[in-house]
Amino acid sequence: MLDLILFYFFATLAIVSAVLVVTRRNAVHSAIFLITALLATAGIFLQLQAEFVFIVQIILYVGGIMVLFVFVIMLVNLDVTLRQMQFNRGWLVGLVLAVALGAQLAYALFLGRNVQLTGPAGGELSAQNTEQVGQVLFQNYLLPFEIASILLLVAMIGAVVMAKKRI
Amino acid sequence: MNALVEFFRPHLLPLLYAVVIVAVLPLIAGYIVLLERKIMADMQARLGPMRVGPHGLLQPIADAVKLLIKEDIIPENADRWIFWLAPLLSVTAGMLALAAFPFGPAFQIADLNIGLLFILGISSMGIFGIVLGGWASNSHYSLLGALRSAAQLVSYETAAGMAVVGGLLLAGTLSTRRIVEMQAEQGTWFIFLAPIAFFTYLVASIAETNRAPFDLPEAESELVAGYMTEYSGFRWALYFLAEYTNMVVVASVATTLFLGGWLRPFPGTTWLNFLDYTPPLLMLLLAGYCFYRTPRQPVKVQQGFLAAVGLLCLLLAVILALPLLPLAVGGIEAQSLRPAIHGGFWFLFKVFAYMYVFMWLRFTFPRYRFDQLMKLGWHFLIPVSIVNVMGIGVALVLDREAGWPLWQALVLTTLLTLAVAAYLAVVGERKDSAAVGGAERSA
Amino acid sequence: MVPTSHYLFLSLALFTIGVVGVVTRRNVIIILMSIELILNAVNINLVAFAHLWKQVSGQVFAIFIITDAAAEAAVGLGIIIAFFRNRETVLADEMDLLKW
């Protein structure tokens, strides 16, 4: 019972925040609503017993990526953009197409809502979520982990080169 | 109805602790400000606030009343909603982080599996309070101060995180309660096993809380007051409260991870068990000093006040001494309360000692220039922290696989990291003086 | 127990809102924020299935996606800053140097 209440609370918060993200005129307001949406998503992760992903979401997404976004919004802040059109010329077509895509996926989900999918057998989620994630990450997924670290290095160099005034 | 009560029962005690913390923290923050002014005065050979109340003890009350009755000014083109939200974010982030600390074995709001990571994450959310506050004020000083402060916080967050990871490797767990219990099992505080990590965390936490010598973003001679420039009255009081709450949070992290939490010094050595009797003795000494100085006060009011403080210390000494006696009152053994009461005392003692070091450093060193600050963070602290983490990892592997005793491997790690730090410092000096020399030659 | 389909519907809703944001808005930064919404929707999906089948690989994949999103946001924002320095605009409609 409490699970359902918590889920509906986080879900409503996430969806309302998401709608506000894509409709605000002021980019800083959008950023703040994106922060709330990310926090609601983190709450959903916690409810799904994924504590490590919850805290990684808060540290990296909210505390890292969103700070970067707010910095850039403040650096490119143009008062002029606040008075121009915020939706592009083909907004109606885009909206219709996106809603059609969503409706198709929703129909597929609705048809399959009671199907019992059986995944790989023999799994179990231990109460020590961080330790288990660490074990699986460093035993089974070591190569993707190293590739991800190289990816971050490349992204760091790329971002520094892009934003430098004189190379 | 019964089911509702039964449902909330396991949450009642944490709720009580939470209410106690939220209610008591603003008062304590106010008195920490007074304490800082008194310590500053002592280090500058003067007396500090003495007028409001005996020895200035009612000064925080006077400050709070003044701030609350001030006019609430909002700049003209400021974004009202974000202007209102920003101090709230800072204070919320600070207070939320206090939920995961064990202030003694019996006083903890929530023993999370990911306790320490939770605290780091929530502290990184405090950056938003600063950035949004500076932006919403619609003023150059605020924006520049906020950007500088946020850049500083983000840089030193990495160094602080790496230092914490160094301590976490020794603990093997993220739960704050288990970390203190691991220190009890090892028989020694982690500061003796990983001193470089502790000192890196000390420096990084000073930068994290915008304290001197890293307080360029909010120093009065630099950017007026940085992101706090346009805030007045109660909103400023909230930012101030957030800053001192952050100080308590970083002090608590250092205490839990490196200084043994609620354990007495050297918890493992049995021949030092007489140290268990130190808390009541300390309080007795303080009470004795207060009573000794009472007759020498010039004014009757101050005499009465000092006698009252002495009585308070005596009362605390009695409370701390009770669990040491073999009593049994109403079915509860007095000895069983000893970990809780003495644990709380040791934790608060260490937190205040750490904050005293903060204040000491503030009134001793001149301010860092912003580029020097960033250079220190990125070119010195982060490489040293990373080398330290790798060294501790290697030391742990040597301990488990090759059978070296842990403390030997850790001594080697410390020496290696010190060598790297010395090399970085020397190279940094040479580059700095070369740059200055080059600029002088070309000028 | 919340049935997994609830989480999948939430993920779908966030995904659709993100797609609407990408396709409809002019401000490039808000387009990037909508992309972050899409990535979050995928994360919810993965973690929901990890919970259903009691595997931890879904959570590991979600962590990789968060790492990827960080890298992509950093590079994307660097590009926006570089473009803004040259053309003084952040509106996608006005970034039309390559049009005929």
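Chains C and B do not touch (no CB pair under 8 Å).
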